[in-house]
Specification:
single chain; alpha/beta; TIM Barrel; 8-stranded parallel barrel; binds D-xylitol-5-phosphate; binds zinc ion
Length: 217
């Protein structure tokens, strides 16, 4: 599978969002990653629907929505209406993960399921028959700019193995602390979709930073 680089807007300059989106697209990212936090599932509140309604018009690449919110099924229709191309929710936040996957698919968009660093890979195994992406968090979700947790590499390998067993087309995304030091290890462990926030947006030269990341993986 080709490597996908998804730029997390959490790390960008919010006072210039349309410009920041264009900057990321011009730098060659494949997707825009939109981190929704509710202050309940994670200890931070980021942004939600009204902001995507405004800035969504500026995004020309696929929008990768990462819901770090309780009871995600309640919000699927809203994000589908706002043009999400893929919606990822947390296994830990859903009473019935299969119902969330089915709801996302009923809107004709791709479904991702995510696990926090402390959640075992076995938790998501039953859903590999239907998801389009697995997101293994490589930091504890809630904040950008955190340090990558090395123990997650083993989980990525486990997920890679399980995905390969299914022979389905499932992307393996990683999110948190992705940079030039970690990207190679993540790729070796089986990741094919890299979220980058701080590394890309805070780089002096974003096109060069994205290019270097792609060269490593
Ligand atoms: C963390 C978010 C990430 C975050 C990644 O909870 O889900 O998408 O923005 O940021 P960096 O790349 O700075 O670790
Ligand atoms: Zn994210």
């Amino acid at each position: 599978m080709d490597i996908i680089v998804s730029a997390s807007l959490l790390a960008c300059d919010f006072s210039n969002l349309a410009f920041e989106i264009k900057r990321a697209e011009d730098a060659g990212v494949d997707w825009i990653h939109y981190d929704v936090m509710d202050g309940m599932f994670v200890r931070n509140i980021s942004f939600g629907e009204p902001l995507l309604k405004s800035v969504g018009k500026s995004i020309t690449v696929p929008v990768d929505v990462h819901l770090m919110i309780c009871d995600p099924i309640r919000y699927i229709d809203n994000y589908a209406d706002l043009g999400a191309d893929i919606i990822t929710f947390h296994y830990e936040a859903a009473d019935d993960p299969q119902a969330v996957i089915d709801k996302i698919h009923s809107r004709g968009i791709k479904a991702g399921i995510s696990i926090k660093p402390a959640t075992p890979v076995s938790a998501i195994q039953p859903f590999l028959k239907s998801v389009d992406m697995v997101l293994v968090m490589t930091v504890n979700p809630g904040f950008g700019g955190q340090k990558f947790i090395p123990d997650t590499l083993e989980k990525i390998s486990e997920v890679r193995y399980l995905i390969d067993q299914t022979e389905r087309d499932i992307r393996l995304q990683v999110d948190g602390g992705v940079n030039l030091e970690t990207a190679g290890l993540l790729k070796e462990s089986g990741a094919d979709t890299l979220v980058t926030g701080t590394y890309a947006f805070k780089a002096n030269d974003m096109p060069e930073a994205v290019k270097l990341l792609r060269e490593i993986v």
